[in-house]
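Lecture notes, unit on protein representations.

Consider one protein chain, 129 amino acids long.
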Amino acid sequence: MSKLDKESVIGVSALLVHAANIDEIYSDHEKDLVKDFIKSYLNDSDSSEILKKAEELEKNSNQLLSFTNIIKNNSMDVKKDIIEHLWKVIISDKTIDQYESNLMRRICGLIYFPDKECAEIKLKLINKE
């Protein structure tokens, strides 16, 4: 799987933070899931520091498109991995509300990721719980 550069990881992490915040509950568990994503791409860096940058970026941005553009130009493997991390964050609190589902539909549309595959990833993760 190709790796994302540091700036891209920060941008995608901001998207994960956005997904975590959409239900207005941003738990430590969700923060850990975002850090897991960061570590999977940047194994030698300080995930807490990158998480802070991502949180800052998310707080100051009302524009999802800038984050999805990073993802759109990547391989299907990278897209799939990012979608999986997004779902992990969303289902970590054991509920999926309409805003979270809507966010995932929008992201998949923006990065040209098939809905069917997105649904399969979601089901796989729910069944793992």
